[in-house]
Amino acid sequence: MLSQFFALNDDHRAIADMAQTFAREKIAPHALDWDERKHFPVDVLREAAALGMGGIYTGEDIGGSGLTRLDAVLIFEALAGGCPAVAAYLSIHNMATWMIDRFGDAAQRGKWGPGLTCMDLLASYCLTEPSAGSDAAAIKMKARRDGDFYVLNGVKQFISGAGASDVYIVMARTSDDGARGMTAFVVEKDAPGLSFGANERKMGWNAQPTRQVICDDCRIPAANRLGEEGQGFKIAMAGLDGGRLNIAACSLGGAAAALDKTLAYMGERQAFGKKLNDFQALQFRLADMAIDLEAARTFLWRAASALDAKTPDATQLCAMAKKFVTDAGFAVANDALQLHGGYGYLADYGVEKIVRDLRVHQILEGSNEIMRLIVARRLIEQK
Ligand SMILES: Cc1cc2nc3c(=O)[nH]c(=O)nc-3n(C[C@H](O)[C@H](O)[C@H](O)COP(=O)(O)OP(=O)(O)OC[C@H]3O[C@@H](n4cnc5c(N)ncnc54)[C@H](O)[C@@H]3O)c2cc1C
User: Fold this and answer.
1) What DSSP designation does 307 have?
2) Over the stretch 329-339, which tens digit does the pLDDT of each residue have?
3) Which of 19, 149, 204, 276 is the most buried (most CB within 10 A)?
4) Span from the CA of 330 to the centroid of ligand 1 (angstroms)
């Protein structure tokens, strides 16, 4: 058991190699262009799905790969080496797909599972609202039962993939009882009363769209309810345990790519008659970056293994790792930019894009303040 925290087996290495090759050949060459043009590369995502990356930890009976959370973080680290924004959308799709696999009934798994795992269908996760982000239990979107239907009214904010996705996992309120009044629904893109806001203009994550999801008397079959009424908060949070690991892995992969670029650059760039990597102060900085990434990677594998083993502290470890790894990843990427001097600030060198992409990982899937809140609450409860 312990050895898996410290060494990968042959299967893990094969999975990571596959994802690295895909990132190097299919993603990295286009990442700057996609960022500049705000292009969402759905065709490339479908190629990734053909290799099993559309339903990484989803059941094989619905076309998933049946892999572990540890496998998933290896894959997302590798893909983010090509483009953190593309990898991060895939991570959200995987989270939503797993939620249908885990909480859906046989009919729901059969209806959406195969399309999601091969990515004929794309998925989005809809929790945040304009007036409820960190305080997710304060959402206002209402779901009213009407015979064999539910009628949804309200607005979801900042939804990744919105407008392009086919399937939306929407958390809405079926009673006023705080977190216990929330219910999860699957809303299909052609549901009457569903519309989308404009694509947000953002600092990073430009290779995937972010839009409002608007429900205006949006009518969906009651059969689209995921789990029971009142289970929505639990379902939403269960998805996020794994989502947080995946986003952390995307930070790790982006930062590792930035460090690689820095090593190459410092081996060539000269100042004061020497290569940059001959200055000991800069060597120490490189060493610190590598140490921080290795510590982050080790912690991430530990949290992923805890989620695989369903240990009682898994949620706590996922929150800790999300905070630690995304902070470390951003700091390393920002250092990489600094070590490139003025060239780091230019788009062509690819480092400023990584910094822009990684910044949002400290905010979403629960901000890093909320990660501390989760950790602190548990510490105090246990006292
Ligand atoms: C590009 C992008 C993509 C996103 N994709 C999705 C998506 O696909 N689906 C989805 O549902 N959401 C998505 N989000 C939303 C994201 O999860 C929220 O932005 C995040 O949870 C923070 O909520 P907020 O923006 O409302 O900030 P607020 O909750 O208003 O927080 C503002 C600040 O206060 C801090 N804060 C709040 N409460 C506390 C507290 N109790 N203690 C200490 N600090 C606190 C926060 O950490 C933050 O720094 C996305 C956001 C972005 C920017």
Assistant:
1) H
2) 999 999 999 99
3) 19
4) 17
Instruction: Please report which residue ranges of the chain form alpha helices under DSSP H.
Output: 3-6, 10-22, 31-37, 42-50, 69-80, 84-103, 106-117, 232-266, 280-309, 314-339, 351-359, 368-382
> Using CA positions, which residue lies closest to atom 12 of ligand 1?
128
Residue 315 token pair: 């949620």
Q: pLDDT of 42-92, one tens digit each?
A: 999 999 999 999 999 999 999 999 999 999 999 999 999 999 999 999 999
Please tell me the distance from the alpha carbon of residue 309 to that of residue 320, in angstroms, as a whole number.
17
The neighbour count for residue 279, using CB atoms within 10 Å, is 14
Q: How far is CA 147 from CA 98, 186, 220, 248, in A?
A: 28, 17, 11, 42
Torsion, Cα 159 238 166 141, to 10 degrees, reads: -60
Residues 6 or more apart whose CB falls under 8 angstroms from that of 201 comprise none
Protein residues with CB under 6 Å of any ligand 1 atom: 92, 124-128, 133-134, 158-160, 202, 205, 210, 360, 363-367, 369-370, 373
Residue 205's alpha-carbon distances to 86, 153, 225, 354, 356, in angstroms, are: 8, 28, 30, 9, 8
State the Cα–Cα distance between residues 373 and 378, nearest whole angstrom.
9
Q: Amino acid identity of 110?
A: G
Predicted confidence at residue 4, as pLDDT, reads 58
Cβ atoms within 10 Å of 227's Cβ, excluding its own = 18
Mutate to test the pocket of ligand 1, among 128, 240, 247 (most ligand atoms within 8 A of CB): 128
Cβ(114)–Cβ(140) below 8 Å: no
Q: Are 84 and 29 spatial neighbours (Cβ–Cβ below 8 Å)?
A: no
Whole-angstrom distance, CA of residue 365 vs CA of residue 243:
7
Gap between the Cα atoms of 374 and 378, Å rounded: 6
> In this structure, which residue's CA is closest to atom 37 in ligand 1?
134
Cα–Cα distance list, 229 to 172, 175, 181, 261, 334 (Å): 10, 9, 8, 50, 44
